[in-house]
Design a protein that fits this description.
Layout (H helix, E strand, L loop, with lengths): L1 E9 L2 H9 L4 E5 L13 H12 L4 E6 L8 H13 L4 E4 L13 E4 L8 H9 L2 E4 L7 H10 L4 E8 L11 H6 L16 E4 L5 E6 L6 E3 L4 H7 L1 E6 L6 H20 L4 E3 L4 E4 L13 E2 L21 E10 L2 E5 L9 E5 L5 E12 L5 E6 L14 E6 L1 H7 L4 E13 L3 E8 L4 E7 L8 H12 L7 E9 L8 H21 L21 E2 L8 H9 L3 E2 L14 E5 L3 H4 L4 H6 L9 E5 L2 E8 L4 E6 L3
Parallel strand pairs: 1-2, 1-11, 1-12, 2-3, 3-4, 4-5, 5-6, 6-7, 7-11, 10-14, 21-24, 25-26
Antiparallel strand pairs: 7-10, 8-9, 8-28, 13-21, 15-16, 15-20, 16-19, 17-18, 17-20, 18-19, 21-22, 22-23, 27-30, 28-29, 29-30
Length: 624
């Protein structure tokens, strides 16, 4: 039996609890520091509460300790690792390999996507030095993931299946550090990739104006779950540690259903945690924040992975503007509008504009039309014209519904009552083999109506509403049933179920720490690593040297001023997205040279260089 894990993000304890209640098998979350989302930190007290909640369901909590560290930060980072272990955190997500030479507790280690895992050799090395779970680059194809799976002995593959995509290979983006002095490898990315650029080719020819050519659509692997499992993925990760509760609820529920659907037809697999989540809403990823969906490179390179018009959520088409009034518009639509909806539209120049609906009411003059009162005069809404197609990027009714309780998670158990003349025993069993029982003397008279007595006992045994359990089956053994007061059987049931919960807590097992092999050799072509290895402290330097590699250049964050540093290394290609790919041109009988392109945003000038053999692109500072 192989376990499949649905791994959800949490920016705080409230969102973490929502993720678990909506079916997450594990949650990853930041602590007081050293997480790759600087503004998503949490106290140890909150983390401990989340751990206790999750462990009821055998769900796991992973702490993001995934920034690169300065020497003076190592002691605090190690202390945080021990604190995390002491409160029950199940694993640390790590980028800085120097931590492996520090005095860490025996906590399981997971290699962050920031470790830049693109090859079987890199994945195998990380397994050998003690990582139990690794996150390959989002850019990999199914066959590349399968190649990594084929070399691993025990380490599990975790893969991003939903959410924002970084245009650069993770851990290899230095644009924010160089241009804004905010390190992406230290949790402070300024998202240079989401800016609009003018793109120039040879002879300063304008190829694209004010376009978000580095801004990717959002990852959506909904159609590829079975393929990813076949390729070796065992942990399915949702991106979004800055996202709010409605987003996490919705996306977690969406993938919970997809994974459960797979599990129902494949008995060789099971979920990695306990409990069944029931939803009182229909998961709908179109209502969540998204820039449009792409499965990226999982099924190979294909057009349409960029969101060039805007890095924001544009929404789904919902209607057409029929008439514009001073403080309202008339819209033709088959959909229902709500007070507080957010609507967007594309202006004639290709830019995104929008407004909030103050009041929505059906309009009788035209069939299927609405009058939408705006919160500001329509004359102040840039680009608003009749005939425009409106999109909705905020559904107020949906958000109101998602703000309430939207799921209940219960662990199915079997409850038995064994009744003899001498005693009454209640037994509770879960699917993991845990058994609890409590027995009381039978001091009650025989029931005159045996069938009614049986029904009353079954009814009392089934009352598990306020617990984490649900009655999967109820059985009553005994030829002669006594007349039992409801209070007696209810108390016996409560005590038995509470005992089962305690037994489950006592038998909860921590994840094992993998043994590290100091003889493992880090895979490089020439036995050296440069700034791409992100070595920012002496322990990281020592780690690479221990594993046969010479560090010839430390991290960009160490104060380098090399003007030709590679700011990004990308699988995404601007030439391909602009239909200027030399390889594709050959198929058309044309010839295009892969000359560099210039990108300009205000005073920022970048150069895109193309490595056609590897089918990759570099973004660098423009040469003077």
């Amino acid at each position: 039996m192989q376990e499949l894990e649905l791994l959800s993000p949490a920016k705080n304890i409230e969102v973490g609890i929502c993720a678990i209640s909506h079916g997450a098998d594990a949650v990853y979350i930041g602590g007081p520091g050293f997480g790759a989302r600087a503004n998503a930190s949490n106290s140890l007290d909150d983390l401990e509460k989340l751990v206790k909640y999750a462990h009821q369901y055998n769900a796991r909590i992973y702490l993001t300790l995934n920034t690169i560290l300065k020497d003076e930060e190592l002691e605090s980072a190690v202390k945080l690792a021990h604190d995390a272990w002491n409160i029950g955190i199940d694993a640390l997500i790590v980028q800085d390999l120097g931590l492996l030479l520090c005095d860490l507790p025996p906590i399981q280690l997971h290699a962050s996507t920031q470790c830049d895992i693109r090859t079987p050799e890199k994945a195998k090395f990380l397994e050998e030095v003690g990582f139990s779970q690794i996150v390959p680059a989002r850019e990999l194809s199914l066959s590349q993931i399968a190649d990594i799976y084929s070399v691993l002995d025990k380490a599990r593959i975790e893969f991003f299946i939903h959410g924002a995509l970084c245009v650069s290979f993770s851990g290899q983006c230095y644009a924010s550090q160089v241009l804004k002095h905010r390190s992406a490898n230290r949790g402070e990315c300024s998202q240079i990739c989401r800016l609009p650029f003018d793109v120039y080719g040879d002879d300063n020819q304008l190829l694209a104006s004010n376009r978000h050519v580095l801004s990717l659509k959002d990852n959506n692997q909904s159609e590829n779950i079975a393929k990813l499992i076949d390729a070796g993925v065992r942990s399915f990760k949702i991106e979004g540690r800055y996202k709010d509760a409605p987003y996490v609820k919705n996306i977690t529920a969406h993938y919970r259903r997809l994974i459960d659907s797979y599990l129902s037809g494949h008995p060789g697999y099971l979920p990695s945690s306990d409990g069944i989540a029931s939803f009182n809403f229909e998961p709908d990823i179109t209502n969540a924040f998204n820039r449009g969906g792409t499965d990226y490179f999982v099924n190979g390179r294909h057009p349409g992975i960029v969101s060039p018009g805007s890095p924001k959520k544009t929404g789904e088409s919902i209607g057409t503007v029929l008439r514009i009034e001073p403080n309202s518009i008339i819209v033709k639509s088959e959909e229902t509008f709500n007070n507080g909806d957010g609507l967007t539209f594309w202006k004639n120049n290709g830019e995104l504009s929008g407004f909030l609906v103050n009041k929505a009411e059906s309009f009788g003059d035209f069939e299927q039309s609405w009058r939408l009162s705006t919160r500001e005069p329509t004359s102040r809404i840039p680009g608003l014209e009749t005939g425009l197609t409106l999109m909705r990027n905020k559904n107020a009714a949906w958000l109101k519904k998602m703000a309430a309780t939207t799921a209940i998670r219960k662990i199915p158990i079997k409850i038995e009552a064994d009744i003899s003349k001498e005693s009454i025993k209640v037994i509770a069993k879960d699917a993991n083999g845990h058994v609890a029982s409590i027995e009381k003397p039978n001091n009650f008279e025989e029931a005159q109506n045996q069938e009614v007595s049986r029904q009353n006992i079954e009814k009392s045994l089934s009352k598990l509403g306020s617990t984490i359990f649900s009655a999967d089956s109820i059985s009553i053994e005994g030829n002669t049933l006594p007349f039992l007061p409801a209070s007696f059987i209810n108390e016996l049931r409560r005590a038995t179920v509470e005992k089962l919960k305690k037994i489950r807590e006592e038998n909860f097992t921590k994840l094992p720490r993998s043994i590290s092999d100091s003889r493992a050799t880090f895979p490089t072509k020439n036995g050296t690593v440069d700034y791409h290895a992100n070595v920012l402290n002496s322990k990281a330097k020592e780690f690479y040297e221990l594993h046969g590699v010479k560090v010839i250049e430390t991290a960009i964050e160490d104060g380098h001023t090399n003007p030709q540093v590679e700011l990004m290394r990308c699988k995404h290609c601007i030439r391909y997205s602009l239909n200027l790919c030399p390889k594709e041109a050959i198929k058309r009988g044309e010839k295009i040279k892969p000359t560099p392109l210039k990108l300009r945003y205000g005073k920022t000038e970048l150069t895109a260089k193309f490595h056609c053999k590897e089918c990759e692109m570099s973004i660098c500072l423009a040469e003077n």
